[in-house]
Amino acid sequence: MGTSLEVMCELLVGNLESGDRLEALIFSAIYLKWINTGQIPCFEDGGHPRPNRHAEISRLIFRELERIYCMKDTSLQEVLSIRKIHPCLPSFKAEFTASVPLTRIRDVAHWGDIPHDLKLQIKHTIQNKLHRNAGPEDLVATEAMLARITRNPEEYSEAFVEQFKIIHHELKDFSMLGNLTEQLESIKESFGDRSLSALTLFLECKERLDNLEESKDALDKSIDLLLKTAQSLNALREVIVKGLESSLRNDVPDATIAMRQKWRLCEIGLEDYSFLLLSRFLNALEVVGGAQQLKENAESKNVSSWNGPLGSLFVGIRQLGLSGWKPEECTAIGNELLAWKEKGLSEKEGSEDGKAVWALRLKATLDRSRRLTEEYSEALPQMFPQKVEMLGKALGIPENSVRTYNEAEIRAGVIFQVSKLCTLLLKAVRSTLGSQGWDVLVPGAAHGTLIQAIDRWAVVKQILCYLKGAPGDEVTAAGNNIKGVVLLQELPHLSHLGVRAGQEKVIFVTCEDDDKIADIQKLNGKCVRHNTTSNFPVKDL
Prior knowledge:
- The protein is α/β, with parallel strands linked by helices.
- Helix content is 63%, strand content 8%.
- The protein is globular and about 80 Å long.
């Protein structure tokens, strides 16, 4: 990995023009991700750079990334790219920048009471490789060796096993792959009293959530605890982001830079954990009735059950803002959500029905939230696909990894969960209002023959189609034949099929209204017009 980091350092550290800077950051983010996920294996190149060289280069890159991150003219695309690079950099704590770091493995390889063949295996598969060209695969090899020596508890001495566990922990630390709790505990000493209370509350909530038993009786408790944990995460991340606002001075000590790296990775780790919290919250919400239950409660003028979903959406929107994605817009949306939540539902608003006004007001904010997610999903295709394809082809990356890179980046982020929350809440609001059951994922107009798509496409003319389910790559499998799609079920806007349809510029709407579905099916085989601005997007010509 040493050579890879040197390449990144040459690419990133220096006086880059702003246009070149974005391109360098994007290529670096793609390259380092493939290194860290094993898509690009690390091999020895005959040199002998110890791990401290990796740590020193990592520190140079980190300083430059933080300098760019804090500049006033840094673009949203540059911020997104930098946030993808940070987790791929090794640690540069003092113990890893020492002249001879990670020496414990050498002592273990010469341990007196272990078999000779095990000594040789440790020396050749871990020690030598680690000291000449450390990379992510060394942690994999260490984990495999740890599993082997702990398989039979009495086979090796406790002292030897304990030392090897310490080596494994050191490598995780060097690769910055400790779990979130470990990472947060490592920065605890640098917190003030106020910040410490936020950290303590989050860790307590997280521990309670981790220990919560899975059962039907615990479901309501789980939903409340998930929301409380997410809210405490928001508060903690705000504290850390505030502490990272100021740029690094030129004379800052190395120890301070190393601590800042820990803070930055904790901040990014909290964003990643919020993805899991929102996913679990959505799953729990579906179990208790999802959009239908929310609609029924609204019908009876009881909207307290909406507080949890709206609160979780607030958390998701706030997370996007803290990550640098249109923070002013995120703040405005968050303020609206809090205002509507506090206002609640009145019997009457002037001469208007209070429920209708409440739902329309909420729908406007949810539509605004959805636009925010769609703008994000539109920004990524402008950044990555061409460069992913270019770099993937040059480095021999499997075609599927190249093809799905952009989609994977969207679906692995908080933005995906925010999109799913918007879909659920908008469905509930539309049902409450008794509005049309259409949802437009990709707008536009086209005409052609309407068919029901089953399995793979068997048509060679310009068509429109409707699907009963969304099993995968239908849109792209048909090439240029497909001009529009009507999906007879709900679908998150940033789902696999929704993203691919947007990339292919295929008009895409979903419909859940049973009567309208029946009307669509009557048009099967006929020439129709597909226009997303119409009250009924599919009409007989």
